[in-house]
Amino acid sequence: MTTYQEQVAVEVTIAQAVWDRVLEAAMKAIADCFARPEARSTAAEMITGLLTEVDTRNCWTLAQALGHPGPHRLQHLLSRARFDHDRAREEIARLVVRELAGQDVVLVADETGDAKSSTGCVGAGRQYSGAIRGVGLCQVAVHLAAVTDSARVVIDRALYLPKDWAADEERRDAAGVPEEVMFATKPEQSIAMVKNALELGVRARWFAGDEVYSGRELRKAMREFGLGYTVGVSHTHTVTDGAGRRQSARQMIGRVLPHRWMRMRTGYGTKGTREYDWAWADVRADDSPDGHEDDGVSVLVARRHRYTGEISFYRCWAPRNVTLAQLVEVICHRWRIEETFQLGKTFAGLDEGQVTCWNSWMRWSLFSLIASAVLALTAATVGPSAPARLIPLTCPELVRLLRAFVLTPPVRDAEHVLHWMAWRRRHQAAAQSCHQRRHALNDQP
After folding, report:
1. Which CATH number fits domain 2-405: 3.40.50.80, 3.20.20.20, 3.40.640.10, 3.90.350.10?
2. Please, what's the largest Cα pairwise distance for the chain?
3. Residue 270 scores a pLDDT above 70
């Protein structure tokens, strides 16, 4: 045990050095995006503060943990400070490109939602979200992640505005939505983000997504960008075989002979290796861009659970010959974006920002993604050097390490705690009085 502890102690030293380097690089990358040094300093505090050990993460709790006398500095940073958050997001994407140089990158698009209590929050409406497991009042955002064998980092995000919300001028003005931001479907948002990522220098060869991102226009756009793709489709998705017959994905895979299914390992879990049965069939491409030859390899891939027999379907295209094992690897990379959502929500407050306006949402999500990116890049650098008989350093373990050795612990002296208790209760009393007066006015005939 002592030997393992000594090995971990060495790993801690390495992790601290890598964390300091990556965080400094991230703050240096976005330094010119701030008009004033005070705002830049507050942003650095907020990014590290998001990773501190607090019960919930919002401007009140973070300000108390950081030792501020009130939440005003953080609220000003999110809403009114002169800060080019769009440029900052691009600079962080360039940093990720440099850190992942030489690695094969798969661009993965997926959305996640946060439950809300009011339609006054920008983009909030009744809509489906897997995060809340159904239809409810929530905000939904589309994210784009750069995924490699060792790292998964979100490099862009776009808030989805439902059609009725995007057309409501009164709500748009109240939330500060820019005039140029109009309604766009989730596939259209992902196309724009992929295009921007490639222009920023992301060296990717593949795009991956689930059924939401399997439309023909998106697949055609990926081919125009020179990317292969693997996108999930439903069992009713219609494909055309080599003979020109149109049939559903289930019918197509149903014709595959039993001995043509191959069992392949798709990763490792706490209970051992994950293995599924895989098969594929050639299909005709229906998404050739204008002026492009109908070349490349177009196939339908099926994954069958070895115990339940449940089958999932994926439509794939590659610009050159490709093996089933390569397609399976890309398909498995798509699942890793779920890990980035879990990391951002658990440790960086991605879903906890109590913000209602456009600027506030953009900046809160940006700071959360920067914190998650620095974590992921640090873990990816330290992980391969894990001592024998120990799993690589994970992001949750890295957070525990940082809280113990690097990050400033939350301020909890008696005078500060009493000050914040009085501040919260005074503020809540004033808010309660305002609500009561408003309801009384609304109740008058």
Report:
1. 3.90.350.10
2. 79
3. no
